[in-house]
Amino acid sequence: MNISIQREANGENLFLVAVEGEIDVFTAPELKQGLLPLTEIIGSKLTLDLNETKYMDSTALGVIVAALKSASKHQCQFVVTGLTPRIKRLFEITGLMDILKREQTNGGNADD
Amino acid sequence: MEDQPQLIAYRNLLMRYVSQDSYSMSEDSELLSGALRARGVSPDDLVNMHIDVLKNVSSNLDNATLRSLYFLSKIMEGYGSEYREHQTLKNRQKQLDTELDVAAEVQKALLEGKVPACSFADIGAISEPAKKMSGDYYRIVNDGGRLAVTIADIVGKGIPAAMCMSMIKYAMDSLPENSQGAPPFILSSLNRVVERNVDPSMFITMFYGVYDPLSRVFSFASAGHEPGFYYSASKDQFEELEARGLSLGLAPGTRYKEYSREIAKGDMLFLLTDGVTEARTDNGFIERKDIVDLIRQSMHLPAAKMVKQIIYELKKMQHFNLHDDFTFIAMKF
């Protein structure tokens, strides 16, 4: 798994976190370490890009849930993009999609 | 270690090897090496032993050879400490394994999924952990004539998931008996428990349903759980037991919707955890239609045999190496 974290240059707290490869029980802690501190920046906008993520298991879902809760607590806008149909289905069944949509007050779209 | 039998054996074997060109030592040396390792003799100890033996048996060791051996001994010191550390870790691992075995037994006893006797349905249930401990949970209760069934999957793996599952078991056991008729009430009560007590990265999917044999209605609600299947005997077809709701532990104050379905004689209900559908095989993921095919192939069997057969086939598809816990319940009316 490879994580790249980019901060937009215009001085605002805009972050793009892209994950390449597989997120599983071995790599999820690294994602958590990268992601959670960003959700704690009040008023930040954070996009998690899963376009290049080949596989994710339930521990990856756990990291996303923790990030969502933390984002909500710190008024951070958290967006997830690049869900494969399989992961999207999982998000829909578990209700994660509803929570994600609730978090996205403007812009961003978990469906693309 | 001068008086240790290993030292004597080592000296004897070494002497024989040095003095007899024709002596083949493979078997003896293997035995000795095994005995030394069994006694925990580390690589640096062994080199020192070798030097001692050489000094004892030969008075004319030249200085360069001796110094080269001391040099080797010094170099081996690091390997020695790594070896001792490895031994310590091995012991600790053994201890953890034993503790885990005990914990797994405790968990098994706690969750011993009994299937109650039931006059109006033939029920089978099976749950297989991927590792020692399971994060799946099911409970089937025949309560004053009504059948209550719960199936849950703790999202997460291993010990934390197993601990969380024990909590769910007790939370369910402590719910008032008369609440069994209201699936949404059960799920929102449990959501409160999970929301308050669980690590933010953990959540639980759960399906809860109650069948009333008098009205022949199955009422259910789902907290983000993988949909089960309903088989209609009159149409000879499968439908999803669709129900929507947020997983337990995602948001406080979540409310759940009640769904219901009339059950006719010969109909069947199947509940499962997503360890089943998230399983990867050589040909990609196991799809829901694959599960329906498996059900069709074995639905003529009694429910208890049927669930065993289905789990066996699913395990075979994964070369008997489960990546996630999985649970399957069949109810034939």
From TrEMBL, chain A:
Residues 12-112 form the STAS domain. PROSITE patterns: STAS (PS50801). One of its GO terms (molecular function) is anti-sigma factor antagonist activity. It holds the Pfam family STAS. Keywords: Phosphoprotein. It comes from the Bacteria. Positive regulator of sigma-B activity. Non-phosphorylated RsbV binds to RsbW, preventing its association with sigma-B. When phosphorylated, releases RsbW, which is then free to complex with and inactivate sigma-B. Belongs to the anti-sigma-factor antagonist family. This is Anti-sigma factor antagonist. It comes from Sporolactobacillus laevolacticus DSM 442.
UniProtKB/TrEMBL annotation, chain B:
GO terms for molecular function: phosphatase activity. It comes from the Bacteria. Keywords: Hydrolase. Residues 118-333 form the PPM-type phosphatase domain. Gene3D superfamilies: KaiA/RbsU domain, PPM-type phosphatase domain. It holds the Pfam family RsbU_N. The keyword Hydrolase applies. InterPro entries: Bact_Sigma-Reg (IPR052016), KaiA/RbsU_helical_domain_sf (IPR017944), PPM-type-like_dom_sf (IPR036457), PPM-type_phosphatase-like_dom (IPR001932), PSer_Pase_RsbU_N (IPR014787). The keyword Hydrolase applies. This is Phosphoserine phosphatase. It comes from Sporolactobacillus laevolacticus DSM 442.
